[in-house]
Amino acid sequence: MHSAPYQLVCCIRGPCAAMAMKPKLMLFSHVCNTRSITGAEKLLLHFMREIGTIFECVLVAPQEGKLTGLARRFGIQVHICNLPMLHGVYTPYQGIAQDAEHLRHTPAFQDALWLIRSHEPDMVLTNTCVNVMPAVAAKSLGIPVIWKITEIIQTNEHTPEAIQMIGRYADWIIGISETAALPFKQAGMSDRVTIIPPTWEPALPAPDRWLHLRERKRKELRFKSSHTCIGYISSFIYDAKGLKPFVDMALKLCETHSRCRFWIIGAPSDKKYYDECVYQVKRSGYARRFTFTTFEENVSLAYSAMDIVVIPSMVKEGFGMTALEGLYFAKPVIAFAQGGLSELMESVGSGAFLAPPGDSDALVTLATTLLNDSELASDTGWRNRTEAEKLYGIETYRVKLHTMVTQWLLRFPGWFTYIQPPSGPVLAWGEGGLRTVMNPDPALIRTLLLPESIVQLLPRSSLPPITVTQQGEGAGKPREEDQRTEPEILVGKRHRKKQVPTSRRKLKELKRTIQTGKKSRSARTRKVKRRHTSGSNLSTRRRSSRNRRRSRTARKGSKSR
């Protein structure tokens, strides 16, 4: 039966397709700060840089800022579109799912639709749980949605509604820790959840440069070699970031350890809270031992200058990027046991340096242990570094990314109908796995370029190659038995699904075709009539490719809304 190449009958839709190109991923950031860059922004930037080896990335941000500037520097296309957030997803309330649907009726929703339609991405990624509108818009256009969860959604009686709402729009969920992903697994979504913990920036200085950087920064801060620097770092400081417990700990240590110096880095987001902490230091009599820095351009220098890093977060963290960077620089880290932060510390063997949330006395005890035993502090720091390299290093991160994309290909082959490795043939999904496409015509198919490292992991079919031909006059016609076994596939730039008959009349015709192998007379008559009238539609088909894409996506969107 398979002695000759299997043929797929295809209808041309739209302009001629280009040669194999990377699939396009449009990523939506919920914020773009102008002076400092938050952990969520930093994670998104690194995610784009790494997945950019597989996808063409397009970043959408609410305004210009640090993130957009860095993205452009790394060759990532940027667009500005300010979309409203649904902050209630982080602190769920009754009716959150209904409010998500109501986003469709806002002017900003039309902006999101227009932006997505104009770029025609293969997939859309929305960053953080509160960035709901991009997911709703992409879903209405039939575009796969990846939802990246970087925080722990607060638990209350309405949390299940928020989780189910995200699950309704997301085809896939990326959690930055097991803790962040746990609510989705508990809701039965484990089969579409990937855990990809963050990694550090590849450009961070190597260990052989640390001593030079340390001496340079400590000289600038006027720290002596005998001083022990205990550091606190946060992009923005407010009560949830725990500056007050840090100050309480520091002032108690001042009474027993005169060589301690405390460096606090972060911009005041809650000025009243920040000023209260500064005032507490000033009236203590130990103000000369404290350095407050609202902004530090090169955080690498900061970690190099520190001896102990403290992260006294008062809320459950999705992960703890500051802690991870401290581990990279071989620093002993002390933290409150909060969510993904606990997960990180325990994974590298530093669970003993976790304190109960809010307990500044426990922080004092842990810091004193390290201050009184320099060998323990050094051993702890280097063990942190070694274990973090194994679990969170750049190579581990890349393997997890590639594994996830491979899962997408296996689970959703319709997302990637035709694929091609850089130096291999065009492949299409068929019975038993991937099958080679014979003499692929760019006018008929849109081929997505994928790395060999991913393609080689996919199953190959033992069946012979397939041929894609143009349906119509002058085209090669498939064998009759092939027509019966393989329905027509519309191969346009955005047509991913087989055309399924929807009316009762068409279903009856299809049933008769399967039973007899012949089409009804009325069906043949309609086909001839369409062929005779095709000439009158020639000028219509010659519209510009731009207008064709707009009308096509508009129809697709209107059907979904």
Automatic annotation (TrEMBL):
Key words, A-Z: Transferase
Residue numbers spanned by region Disordered: 464-561
Coiled-coil stretches: none
Taxonomy, superkingdom: Bacteria
GO molecular function, one term: hexosyltransferase activity
Signal peptide positions (record): none
Domain Glycosyl transferase family: 214-381
Comp. bias (Basic residues): 492-509, 518-533, 540-561
Residue stretches of biased makeup (Basic and acidic residues): 476-487
Pfam families for this protein: Glycos_transf_1 (PF00534)
Protein name: Glycosyl transferases group 1
Source organism (scientific name): Paenibacillus polysaccharolyticus
